[in-house]
Design a protein that fits this description.
Structural class: alpha+beta
Largest sheet: 4 strands, antiparallel
Shape: globular
Distance between the termini: 13 Å
Helix content: 25-40%
Order of helices and strands: EEHHEEEHEEEEEHEEEEHE
Radius of gyration: 17 Å
Strand content: 35-45%
Mean pLDDT: 93
Strand order of the largest sheet: 3-5-1-6
Length: about 240
């Protein structure tokens, strides 16, 4: 199993607040998909099979500065999607906020993962428009169950095959933030906040757990990955 990754260099055309940056990147990627007729990937219900991380480096003032270059990463299990974006991201020249000036592709083969930790908030819905936080739920077992189930569904949906799951792929979860983190988007003029957490996960060693951890790394852990949520970093042996 492989995933495919684009490391993108971005020129900032006007100052961008950190909190606004995820929505702007999401829209930039979505628009770039439409240029080659693959916009339905972003619009369709269900899994999108891609995720992106935030702009780096993060400025102390939490504002990305006009005229500077930053970088961000897009990952996917879908090589065709990554190959298309490699071209169309750089063709999206009329965006008023930013411009991707370079996009370099890498192929990463499955490796043994001992730990995953989140670079962006991990969003988990718990019903009634609410999200898992220590304040809303605090039920770690529920969080562990939903994270596993989400990764398993993504695997089955993308590869079209079931896994013989014997145990949860996550051995241990640690919540890394004291207060919930959030990603903000706007629809019909209203701000919508997706609340989540920064987490670290110890991954079980069995074959199924390793596949699910790799899928979480490849296309994001849990929900709202096309808005930049659940972008994970992995530790292990390559």
């Amino acid at each position: 199993m492989n995933y495919f990754e684009l490391t993108c260099k971005v020129f900032i055309k006007k100052n961008i607040a950190f909190q606004a940056s995820f929505e702007l990147l999401s829209k930039y990627i979505s628009f770039s998909m439409y240029q080659e007729g693959i916009g339905e990937v972003h619009q369709k219900e269900g899994f999108k099979y891609y995720v992106f991380g935030g702009l780096l480096p993060i400025e102390k003032e939490k504002v990305y500065k006009q005229g500077n270059l930053y970088s961000f990463t897009i990952r996917s299990l879908d090589e065709t999607l990554i190959d298309t974006l490699k071209t169309t991201l750089r063709q999206n020249i009329n965006n008023e906020n930013l411009l991707v000036v370079e996009a370099h592709k890498k192929t990463i083969s499955q490796f043994f993962i001992t730990e995953l930790y989140s670079a962006t908030p991990v969003i988990v819905s718990v019903g009634n428009g609410k999200y898992w936080t220590m304040q809303e739920s605090g039920d770690i077992i529920q969080l562990q169950k939903q994270l596993h189930e989400n990764a398993e569904k993504k695997y089955q949906s993308f590869f079209g095959e079931s896994l013989h799951v014997k145990e949860n792929c996550i051995q241990m979860i640690k919540i890394l933030n004291e207060k919930p983190q959030n990603i903000v988007i706007h629809k019909d003029g209203k701000a919508i906040r997706f609340f989540g957490n920064k987490v670290s996960l110890i991954i079980n060693e069995d074959e199924v757990s390793q596949k699910l951890a790799f899928v979480a790394l490849a296309c994001g852990l849990s929900e709202k990955n096309s808005y930049g949520a659940g972008f994970m970093l992995g530790r292990g042996m390559k």
